Amino acid sequence: MEKINSPLKGIRILDLTRVLAGPFCTMILADLGAEVIKIERPGIGDDSRNFPPFVNNESAYYILLNRGKKSIVLNLKHQKGREIFLELVKKSDVVVENFKPGTMEKLGIGYDVLNKINPKIIYASISAFGHYGPYKDRPGYDLIAQGMGGIMSITGWPDSPPTKAGTAIADISAALFCCIGILAALRARELTGVGQKIDIAMTDCIVAINEAYNEKYLVKGEIPGRIGNRYEYIYPYDTFKAKDGWIIIGVGNDEIWERFCKAIGKEELINDEKFNTNEKRVKNYKLLEPIINEWVSKRNVNEIISHLLKYDIPCGPVNTIADACEDPHIAKAREMVISIKQPNIGEIKIINCPIKIFPSSPKVRGPAPLLGQHTNEVLKELVNLNEEQLNKLRKEGVIC
């Protein structure tokens, strides 16, 4: 692993997570410089090793989320496997898992046990509903959290069924909140000398990111619904159809409104009593929308963007994934698309870490590990096992 100045250099994380929410969290921590030791099941590993798309029979899904980590295979259902895990806990800073609540306790390695053998350990858990409350024992996935957290009820169009976000937003938001919690706990440990338990529920995270839509109900008693791409609190802040595609226009305040009216040759609208404040524009959006549509529909996307930017109007195209991955600002200047050398594949393109910190910017530290690639290395270094002992454990099915 490349040794460079990095924000989390010297922090060791035991990663018991699989699929998306947990691995996305530990991926960020690895990009930030932490040593992430991924503990995988014998013979199977992380479920996502079998998720498409595949390159030379290797999962690009797995590679993206597990770059820069080490992989060891350890059977936690075996007593000796649990003993080895506890030895690793003694020499680590953070344990992250995304099992159903109670799983770690059934294995005999729950937070209370880990805290006793290492009071400095930070234990982070991601689950559908959290470790307490009436739903804690329910199984759950991203889609269920999106539905129960309310975001599906406000995503889509008035005449469409409830719609999920295009990406797994419950998993991703939980990963980000978990990462924030871990960083906060690491800081608190510097002050107190003790670790903490972090309990992240995907459903909680969805509720949190519903932002002002919650307040509309809590303060006014109104239940928000689906309104398409229009933003309920600012207008125009929406998508509009051009001759050759879709464009986004965001008029965030009255100063931008004035410039926008000049840009589209409708200066008479600046002081129009129906549109001269944002509150009025939101209220009367049905009158304003066709005026904007008429102007936009006669022009190409690039023509509109070029023109509006001359007036400093926030705008942009609705890109496809391909457009975004090929965009010269996003992909090249901001280095969001990079290449790594992956075992069994060679060079493969992946998405980079979006966090920029200077002078120690996070970066992808290396490829994703093969299953159990670092088992011998880690157990020799941290548990002081020799080759003979490792071979015996391998025969017993503890490692492989």
Structure description:
This protein is α/β, with parallel strands linked by helices and 400 residues long. The chain folds into two domains: 12-209 and 339-395, Rossmann fold; 237-322, 2-Layer Sandwich (formyl-coa transferase, domain 3). The protein is 40% helix and 14% strand. It has 17 helices and 13 strands. It has helices at 21-31, 60-66, 79-90, 103-107, 111-117, 142-149, 169-192, 202-209, 212-220, 254-263, 278-283, 285-297, 301-310, 321-326, 328-333, 375-382, 387-395, and strands at residues 12-15, 35-40, 54-55, 58-59, 70-73, 94-97, 122-127, 197-201, 237-241, 246-250, 315-317, 337-342, 346-351. The strands form four sheets. Strands 5-2-1-6-7-8 form a six-stranded parallel beta sheet, with helices on both faces. The protein is elongated and about 85 Å long.
Summarize the structure in short.
The chain has 400 residues and is α/β, with parallel strands linked by helices. Helix content is 40%, strand content 14%.
